[in-house]
Amino acid sequence: MKLMQRNTEMQVVKATVGYAAEIVSVLTDATKYKLQRGDFAWGSRGPSEQEVLEQINRDEMYVVLSDCDVVGTFRLQWDDEHYWGKQPPVAAYMHGLAVKESAHGKAVGANVLTWTVQEAARQGRQYLRLDCDEKNFALCRYYERRGFIQVGERALQSGYVAALYQCETGLKNESAAA
């Protein structure tokens, strides 16, 4: 799917093995960016190439391209027991949204959120869900400004607490409870 923003065409595509090194680079830089702001949600280092390859092989990794360059990446999953517990199949779950530093301020994240909401609806899901560090107030506000509502939190054994957000896709699934 192609996205237009600020005279730049962006395209979301499923990641292939050929993108692994670029994805690692974007995620490593994004991890450093988060750490500088006190957000430890992704740990102290970026993912290894092996971790990214595993995500690509599970068909959950995507890249955002602008003029054939990778400007962002994210994962889209169809269940997430780690953060959300066992759930009926009413939601898609987005993780690891990262934007290349040179693309900050170019609406890449907003375009990805729009695309993932639409993709969740195309796949018959009523919600797009995501999580972030509850202490990252700027990121929480960012998601809230884009229509996400905090519906809970999840404390992990490590002490990390994730704020759980969801946004309706516009698809109504009356037989499933959220």
Write structural notes for this entry.
By secondary structure, this protein is of the alpha+beta class. It has a single domain (2-168), classed as 3-Layer(aba) Sandwich (Aminopeptidase), CATH 3.40.630.30. The protein contains five helices and eight strands; from the N terminus they run ββααββαβαβαββ. It has helices at 20-36, 49-57, 81-84, 108-122, 137-145, and strands at 2-5, 8-14, 61-66, 69-77, 91-99, 127-133, 149-155, 161-168. Strands 1-2-3-4-5-6-8-7 form an eight-stranded mixed β-sheet. β3 and β4 (69-77) form a beta hairpin. α1 packs across α2. The longest helix has 17 residues, at 20-36. The radius of gyration is 16 Å and the shape is globular. The model is unreliable at 1-7 (pLDDT under 50).
Beta-strand percent range:
25-35%
In angstroms, what separates the terminal alpha carbons?
28 Å
Instruction: Using the coordinates above, name the CATH class.
Output: Alpha Beta
Going by CATH, the homologous superfamily would be Gcn5-related N-acetyltransferase (GNAT)
| Helicity range | 25-40%
Strand neighbour order, sheet with most strands: 1-2-3-4-5-6-8-7
Task: Describe the structure concisely.
This protein is α+β, with helices and mostly antiparallel strands. It is built from five helices and eight strands; from the N terminus they run E-E-H-H-E-E-H-E-H-E-H-E-E.
Write the layout of secondary structure elements.
Elements: E1 2-5, E2 8-14, H1 20-36, H2 49-57, E3 61-66, E4 69-77, H3 81-84, E5 91-99, H4 108-122, E6 127-133, H5 137-145, E7 149-155, E8 161-168
